[in-house]
TrEMBL record:
It comes from Wocania arenilitoris. This is YjjG family noncanonical pyrimidine nucleotidase. GO terms for molecular function: 5'-nucleotidase activity. SUPFAM superfamilies: HAD-like.
């Protein structure tokens, strides 16, 4: 069923439009080679991905800062695979990761198609918890920046999703009322609950293996947003 009265759509970026896991894996492959790291990449990534999510949750909850996130997720992943590495090299890898991450720009299936479709009838925006110096590069290099009228970043606002302040800030910058807006994202906590808690409608983007309770709107392919919008 189509959502009525919507004029503005707010997207998350990482894991929603921009294929973070794929681009991150390619980045690690590159920086491991640059720094002569002979760790097993697939083994590292299998440990890193859940560790990274854990650290981002701590970061969202203001329990750690950016520097702790960047170092800790790498340090813990190397520890998990019993790979000995100097602290200085972890710091170098952390810097290289941020440097090269936006050089890979794989998007989820049908990203261009759905943005082109939605752009004809709605104002499109981004709300992201990602680091500001990286997110704008991702949008530009992936050639989707022109679709978005505003980009709201947690570092600019000073709080992260699901904090109500970032949603209210984004609505103010977009000059739109909450009941005319919808949030689309992959994080139930940050994107969906964050939006619903300020009165904004929301659509969860994720696998149906993670079907959420209740009547929550959900798609597992971006093109299926046409069902609602």
């Amino acid at each position: 069923m189509k959502i009525k009265g919507v004029t503005d759509i707010f997207f998350d970026l990482d894991h929603t439009l921009w294929d973070f896991d794929k681009n991150s894996a390619l980045t690690f492959d590159k920086i491991f080679k640059l720094n002569n790291i002979d760790a097993n990449l697939s083994e590292f990534l299998s440990c890193y991905q859940p560790i990274n999510l854990k650290y981002w949750k701590l970061y969202r909850e203001e329990k750690i800062d950016k520097a702790s996130l960047r170092f800790g997720r790498l340090n813990d992943a190397f520890t998990a695979i019993n790979f000995n590495i100097e602290k200085e090299l972890i710091n170098q890898l952390s810097e290289d990761y941020i440097t090269y991450l936006s050089s890979f720009n794989h998007l989820f299936e049908n990203t261009f198609e759905i943005l082109k479709y939605l752009n004809t009838n709605y104002n499109l925006h981004i709300i992201t918890n990602g680091f500001s110096e990286v997110q704008h590069k991702k949008l530009t290099k992936a050639n989707i920046n022109h679709y978005f009228k505003t980009v709201t970043n947690s570092e600019t606002v000073g709080v992260k999703k699901p904090n109500p302040k970032i949603f209210k800030y984004a609505l103010k910058v977009a000059n739109v009322k909450v009941d005319q807006s919808v949030m689309i994202g992959d994080s139930y906590e940050a994107d969906i609950l964050g939006a619903l808690n300020v009165g904004m409608d929301a659509i969860y983007f994720g696998s149906y293996s993670n079907v959420l309770a209740g009547k929550l709107k959900q798609v597992n392919n971006l093109i299926h947003l046409k069902k609602y919008l």
